[in-house]
Amino acid sequence: MNPASLIQGAAELLSVLSTIAQTHGEAQADAALRAALASLRAKRSELDSIEAAESARLMRLPL
Amino acid sequence: MSELLCNMWRPALACAAVFASSVALGTCLAGCTRAARLDALTAMTSAASAAVPSMLDARERAGERCFDGTPTRAEASSCLDAVRADWRPVWIALDLLEDVNESALSGTVELEQAIGVYCGLASVLADRGVALPTEVCP
User: Fold this and answer.
1) Chain A CB within 8 Å of residue B82 CB
2) C or N: which end of chain B has fewer Cβ atoms within 10 Å?
């Protein structure tokens, strides 16, 4: 095989592998952000129950 | 160079922190890979999320104080309105952080904007006795 072709082939292979690695890294980072956002939203939702309990307690007070 | 440094400094919050404290922040934000910027945003979101139980505890305690003694319904209601107004900036800051996350997931990661939102959240929380890590804040 022509050495120049071999080198060119290797360079192209490295380029493809690099692109694959970068895409995989972004996909992982994307999934991690989605999970963090979902967790934040789930925790925040507890505020609703705090406010609901306050409102219920308020209704039990004398006018 | 900045991209290399960003990738070396994972978890990425540290990456953002290193550059937030330097004049090279803009260079870093432009130079980091998208994955590194997403990681930085994830780190800030996770830090905010971890602090939510403390936020809710502090918010609940503030509401509890409205029922101290024997208030009338009108007095307690007025007090609760004030508590809810006082905490509104916190929930707005969290809304903004969620918006930045949504934008990042659907397109460009505006890390500089995210840092501003996160540091704003840290500031309003500090006023209410809840601490967030602020190494990322300039």
Assistant:
1) no
2) N
